[in-house]
Every structure is written in C-alpha cells, then in structure tokens.
Amino acid sequence: MPVLDLMSGFIVELRNAGLPVSLTENLDAMEAVKVIPIEDRDAFKYALGATLVKNNAHWKVFETIFEVYFSLRGPEYAITQDGQPDDFWREMQEQMDQVKGQGEGKGSGGGMDSLTPEEINAMLMRALMSGDQAMMRALAKQSVQRFAGMEPGRPVGGTYYLYRTLRNLDLENMLQKLMDANRESSQQDLTSLEERLEKDEFESRIEQFKQEVESEIRRRLVADRGAEAMAKTLRKPLPEDVEFMHASRDEMQSLKKALYPLTRKLAARLARKRRHGRKGPLDFRNTVRHSLSYGGVPADPKFRYPRPAKPELMVVADISGSVAAFARFTLMFVYAIQNQFSKVRSFVFIDGIDEVTKYFKSTEDIGEAINRVNTEADVVWVDGHSDYGHAFEVFWERYGRDINSKTTVLLLGDARNNYHAAQSWVVKEIAKRARHVYWLNPEPKSYWNTGDSIVGEYGAHTDGVFECRNLRQLEGFVENLT
Amino acid sequence: MKPRFNDVATVRSGLKNVNYLADDGIAGVVFLADRLGKPVLIEGPAGTGKTQLAKSVAELTGARLIRLQCYEGLDESKALYEWNYKKQLLRIQADKNSDSWSEIHDDIFSSEFLLARPLLEAITSEEPVVLLIDEVDRVELETEALLLEILSEYQVSIPELGTITAKQIPLVFLTSNNTRELSEALKRRCLYLHVDYPDLEREKEIVLNKVPDISENLADQIARIVRSIRQLDLKKAPSVSETLDWARTLMLLGIETIDAQEAKETLHILLKYQTDIAKAAKELSVTK
Ligand SMILES: Nc1ncnc2c1ncn2[C@@H]1O[C@H](COP(=O)(O)OP(=O)(O)O)[C@@H](O)[C@H]1O
Ligand SMILES: [Mg+2]
C-alpha cells in the first residue's frame, strides 16, 4: 500500500486512541514523510512522532500503532502451518555450524527443523550471553514460527502467542541460567556490585528479546488480520484515562510514572497562580515604562501581586479493597504537592479510622509512607468491611474540633456502606466548621446511589461530589481546589 | 533555501564531531526541522543535553547562537524589543517647541530608538543563526503568546513600525524541563522531541567524549552503575550532567575500577536526596 494511504488510516487510529492530532499536525506529518524515506524505519518513526505526538505520555500508544501500521510486510510474515526457514536463518545456521566445528552431527543446510528445542534454547542462551543482537532477532523470529502455534484467522490475542513462545523457550529461568553460567566462566569471584550489574545487563537483554518476539507476533497478526482490526484489539487507554478501580499491574506502573510529572506541573502552575491571584499596590516603574505608548500619560497602571494564603487540608480516605488504589493515588498526589497547602493531615479508614499523617512526616519517600499506611494503620474495627458511618463518627469525636474556617476536608471513597447506619450528620457538622468539604468518588456517576452506595446522602451536605475515576479527573479537581 | 544536511546520518555523525552524541530520534528531528523549516520543542528531564543540543547544532552549522533564557516575569521588552525610552524622552524634550507631535512621534518610533532583544535579533540577523529559547516552561502561559508569531511566520510585528520579516529562516530550539504543560498553540507550531536519559551505549560514549583521559573500562562501569540506579524508584534520577560530574570525581580520586564501597562514598554526587542515596547504597551492596 502506498505510504499516503497508510498514513490516513494511521492518523485515524491515533485519534481513535485518544491522541489529539490537529489538522496542522496532520499536514506536517504528510510533509515529513516526503523528506524521510519509509525504508529508514527508525528515522521515519521519529519524524512521525515529532509531528504527531506532543506529549511524551502518549509515546507508547503511538509506538504500538506505528508498529501495526508500518510494520514490515511481505509474504514472509504470512502465518503458515509449516514454517519455512528463510535465507537469513540458513546463513546463520551455516555460520553456527562453522563455529561449532563439524563434529556435532548437524550438517549444514539442515535448517531449523533439524534443531531440537534444547538446541534452540542453547543458541538463545549463547546469544543473550554475548549480547549478539542479530542472532537474538533471528532467534525471536524463528521461535515465533516454531513455538507460537499461530493459525490463520484464529481470533486469539497476541498475549496468548507470546506466552506460548516464551514458555517453550523456558525464558522464566533464563536469567538464573545466565547468572550461573556467568559465574562459572569468570576467573575470579564476582563482587556483589559486579553481579548486580551483570544481572541488570542480562535482564535488559532478555527484555529486548521479549520485545522482539512480541513485535514478530504482531507483524504476523497484522499480516493475517489487517492493520485496522489489529489496532482495535490492541487499543489501550492513555495513562491519564486509566481507571483507578480497574488498573492492571502494568497500568499501575504507568500511572505511577505519569503521576510525578503531573504533580510537578500542577505545583508550578499553582505557585504561579497564587502569585498572580489578586491585584496589589501600584508598580511605579512598570507603569511609567508603559506610559510611553500614551505619550507619557500613565494610562495603564501596573500592579504588584501579594500572596494569598494557602489552604489547610484534611484528607479522609476509605482504603478498603476496590477503592484502595484510588486512595493511594490521591494521597500520593496530595503529598506530592503538599507545599501548596499550609498543612496536610490524612486519615484512613475501613470500619475503624486512624490518622496517618506521621508516616508522611517521618520520611521524604511518599511510596514508603503509603506502604506503611497500608500495613500499619489501624483501620479495622469489627470485620474489615467499609463502615463509613462508624468511621465518620469516630473521626468527628477525635478530630472534629481541629477543623476550622481555614480547613478544606476531602472525603474519598465510593460511599458503599454495606447497609450500615450512614451517620451523615457528621458530614453536616464538618461542613459547618470547615471552609469547604468535597467528596471524591472513583466510581462512574451512573453507579452512584445504586446498591449500597449512599454518596447522595453524604454529598448533600458537601460543597460538591466529584467523579474521580482517573488521573485526568483527579488533576482537574486538585487544580480547582487550591 | 538550501538544506543544511543531506540525510539523517550526516546529522548524527556531524554532531558526533562536535562531541554531541545523538540517537536516531534526536538526529532525525534536527534533520526534519531543517527540511520543514519548523522550530523544535525539546522536552525532558533536566541535565539530559537539551540546551547542549542547540549549542552543538550551532557549532556544527557554523551559525551564531542567540539565546533567550526564559524566567518568570520575562516580558516583551526583554524577549522581543524595547523602545529606548530614555532616549525617546530626551528627543521629546529637546524638540518640545519646534516640531509637531506627529513628527516627533514618527521619529521616536523609528529603528534608531529600538533596542533589539534576542528574538528580534535572531530575525534581523544577516548571518546564519541558531535561536535557542531556553527553559520556555518558566514563562507564564500568557507570555508564550509573544513567541507564536516568530515560531510560525518568522516575523515580528511592531505596531509603531510595521512587520519585520526574517532574512533567513533560523533553526529554532525551545527547551522545557516540563514543569508545566505548554500551550497547544505553541506545541502545534513545533516539532516535538522528547529527550530522555541515554541508553547504556550512548551514555558511555558521552562519558568517553566529555571526560579527558578516562578509560573505556571505567566509562563502561560508570554507565552500567548509573543505569542500575536509574531503575530504582527515586525522587530524582541522576542526569547526564551528574554522570559526568561523577566520572570526573572518580578520575580525580584516581579510581580505575569502582567497588561497592567507593560507589557508596561518592553517591552524593549522583543523587541529591538523602532518601535516594540511602536507597541506592542499599541496592548496590546486595548480594543477589
Ligand atoms: N548527548 C550528549 N552528548 C554530549 N554531551 C551531553 C549529551 N547530553 C548531555 N550532555 C552533557 O550533559 C550536561 C547537561 O546538558 P544540558 O544541555 O545542560 O542539559 P539540559 O539542558 O537538558 O538540562 C552538559 O555538560 C552536556 O554537555
Ligand atoms: Mg538546559
């Protein structure tokens, strides 16, 4: 297919995946492909990236779609029952045979069919050991052909094939085997530092090999099903749109990665906003300078800006099961920008409640503090099922008097109260004393007040209930808060 | 205008000749910037060679580097141009009685009274120029608007004087340490380049190129240790400049191969936070 036709499908898919590609950017990309040949795949990819992706958090999604639309194509990627060894492989074989010497019983030209899985495994180990890139790539290709068991038209996802391939290669134990072999082959004992470095090196090679296998599978699936269908199966939410309540482990990782740049930006924005919030006294010099355009008349007075006070924050979070991840991210978020508040106190509950501020005070490491919150906080009263009513009552009894007209209180949770007594009077009392009370709910709005959710009953006393399913919404809320 | 580079490979090797180690992405985007005549917005963590890239491209192309260092509060009068108002006042006072106001007005708003700041200077320059707008994320969102005309049209409009258009299209680089989201308008006008920490090979090359007399072996070890440290969950990962500082320190101490003890004792050069240092020290001495 000509490049320009591929391009239009490609850009449609980027937009489907949520990337904000404007018309100008689309046109720039079209210009870019005119000056960079598609054969130079890396340069081609970066050229498209430079014109179409203006946010690094979106790069991974871009890369996947790029691979689907511009992966190498050709008959050699067709899924066939009996994989024919290609020329590259045959050459490789011959070289290997020469290196091995003739005595091992495998004549040249035997191709992959004559190799046992153990032999392939041994070759892979050697390639990983020496970091031989070309060999690793060739082996990835052959392993897929041989072990993935791909069948044309079969509607299974790439992960299944990946799993089959890697299992056949026994890749799980590869790291250990490499480390052992390395230890044996080195003359003197490795220091622990050296071992550590070797391990990281091997891990990175194994990871690289895995990615080769994955790409190979993807190329074949694209050849079989077409780019559009393939892109659709691979479509994943952008990090900022991943739902807290349903994030997989990988997604959690990418969420965590996205969190800190976000908070850094937010903090800078807030600091700036604070400085420019209100008008202050006249800035004389600035006014005079601008007066020149009016023939020396100070027609456009300029002002200096005072700093408005920072709010005090109390976060009260349900950390039971399904909403735990949400609580964790919100706490991380709040503590990452704690300089924006004059004071932050945090409380966590399930059916009992505990103050956890001290964990965040005793370390600079927010991650570590969160771990302590999860393991050490005393949050179970009776049975470890959320009881908002009881938790709120105890909160009010113990800490209610600390709330004053400078305090903003954030209540976090899905308000699924397991049909316990609501005790919503507590929220009402909090609202009377505090500057603001807000409720953040990680559930989609359509689930609110269904089943045992009583967020409406609590929410009635607050200054607002906000849906906070993902980072994007959380960031938006916090920005308006300060 | 004649293209500055033949292909991506030339950019890469050219940069290497001036001691800048680029990867495919960096070289590709520089090439594209020249061909499409578009500015490049470079984002990434601090100390990863964003500013250096602009400087090195200037050196490579034999162009003059004009740098606008951004800061909070930067305004038109520091970025674009300013009327020399003292001189204007003198002129007004000198001629108070003789000339009509409109005559004076025309006179004091002529180029004689104009002070060119970096952006205007880059536009009006006769010789080839690389314009570096450094750390653009530090200016207020509203100030970004000052840049838009230059970035898309390569021109500056001065109400009293008219529009000044560039004599030649300069290569323009904007850098950002990502402390805030830049406006869509600005991003749309630029090619985007994210510069991250270099991979092992490239970092080793950088060390070899930038630290005189360092051995291949030591450079390799440094790059490996830094890679391992970056994999930890840190408040602030070591940047390339910190890698270089560390390499220089190790050279000064006369260290040829690093052992765990020496690594630990010099970690404060690589890492800035006490918690990060403690974490890395613990990791580096583990046995398995
Ligand atoms: N790719 C590279 N090649 C050569 N030197 C580099 C490279 N990347 C970073 N450096 C060096 O690292 C240091 C920091 O680079 P700098 O451009 O100031 O970082 P940034 O602008 O991204 O904060 C400089 O001394 C620079 O020379
Ligand atoms: Mg810089």
TrEMBL record, chain A:
Cross-referenced InterPro entries: UCP010256, Uncharacterised_CoxE
Coiled coil: 168-219
Keywords linked to the UniProt accession: Coiled coil
Identification of the protein by name: Unannotated protein
Species this protein is from: freshwater metagenome
Lineage, opening ranks: unclassified sequences, metagenomes, ecological metagenomes
Automatic annotation (TrEMBL), chain B:
Pfam family, one: AAA_5
Molecular function terms from GO: ATP binding; ATP hydrolysis activity
InterPro entries: AAA+_ATPase (IPR003593), ATPase_dyneun-rel_AAA (IPR011704), CbbQ/NirQ/NorQ/GpvN (IPR050764), P-loop_NTPase (IPR027417)
Domain AAA+ ATPase: 36-201
Record-given protein name: Unannotated protein
Source organism per UniProt: freshwater metagenome
